[in-house]
Specification:
This protein has 270 residues and is an alpha/beta fold. It has one domain (4-267): 3-Layer(aba) Sandwich (Rossmann fold). It is built from eleven helices and eight strands. β2, α6 (104-114) and β3 (120-124) form a beta-alpha-beta unit. The longest helix has 21 residues, at 45-65. Bound molecules: S-adenosylmethionine (SAM). One of its GO terms (molecular function) is methyltransferase activity.
């Protein structure tokens, strides 16, 4: 069990570090210190976070325009610019959104932002227990299609059996016509086994309770399994997934540097 020193060492969280990368204000000294250690190894990490947010925005807009009206955003993080409910409800005011996060600060901030919005809510939940999330979410009709958003969160489930198993479990309870949105840290970028990769990953392992594991393009494809048909253009670097005007230009010179795989799949009949 963690002693008091361990509790202090692990005081950072991935949600608040990510908030810091994005220039947000909902982070503490321990989060900033841990995030700066990662940035020291990978100066591009804030740009990676921006590229990821931009992909998320385009994916939600694409789905809302295609008629999707229910979103389950797991590992949703601390609210920032371009949250799922803002994009979805701008396109379709009747869209319903449930945010789920393991970090109580993320849940509290989301609830505050959603005050007065009866078509969006935030709950505390663990991606590794998808049945409990589906049972507790309370707003979505899961007998009808739902878009499950797993943006930059599956790499915080390092155990492969657990990671692929939980996605299969989620897909099994959702009807055909549902969607799966995934973005995922790339092993091609962050899994090189060199010193700086090891140092950056050690920050998450030692200072947060969410160790990280990047995966290859093929491993990300595997999340869509046999039940999903990948929406065009398949699994791509985040900036390459249906790029749009106004996207960040950080990786315009080489999208492979974005370090994040991204894709959307359509759930097929079993
Ligand atoms: C990098 S942030 C991504 C936030 C947002 N999805 C985005 O893409 O902008 C990862 C989020 O996943 C959450 N998270 C990590 N492990 C989780 C788990 N097992 N269950 C639910 N949320 C988790 C963290 O608390 C954090 O808010």
């Amino acid at each position: 069990m963690d002693g008091p020193n361990e509790t202090v060492r692990k005081a950072a969280t991935s949600a608040r570090m990510y908030d810091f990368y994005l220039g947000g204000a909902h982070n503490f000294a321990a989060d900033r210190q841990a995030a700066l250690k990662v940035i020291e190894q990978y100066p591009a990490v804030p740009a990676v976070a921006r590229a990821n947010r931009a992909f998320l925005g385009r994916a939600v807009r694409f789905l809302a325009d295609a008629g999707v009206r229910q979103f389950l955003d797991i590992g949703s993080g601390i609210p920032t610019v371009g949250n799922v409910h803002e994009i979805a409800q701008r396109a379709a005011p009747d869209a319903r959104v449930v945010y789920v996060d393991i970090d109580p600060v993320a849940v509290a901030e989301s609830r505050e932002l959603l005050h007065g919005n009866d078509r969006a809510t935030a709950i505390h939940g663990d991606l590794r227990d998808p049945k409990a999330i589906v049972a507790n979410q309370g707003l979505l009709d899961v007998t009808r299609p739902v878009a499950v958003v797993l943006a930059a969160v599956l790499h915080f489930v390092p155990d492969d059996t657990q990671a692929y198993g939980l996605v299969d479990e989620l897909l099994a309870v959702l009807p055909a016509g549902s969607h799966l949105v995934v973005s995922h840290g790339a092993a091609e970028t962050f899994g090189l086994g060199d010193e700086r990769t090891a140092a950056a990953r050690a920050v998450y392992t030692r200072q947060t309770s969410t160790a990280g594991k990047p995966r290859t393009k093929q491993e990300v494809e595997r999340f869509f399994g046999s039940r999903c048909a990948l929406v065009d253009p398949g699994v791509t670097w985040a900036p390459d997934w249906r790029p749009a005007a106004g996207d960040p230009t950080d990786f315009a010179y080489d999208t492979r540097r974005s370090g994040m795989w991204a894709a959307v799949g359509l759930v097929q009949a079993a």
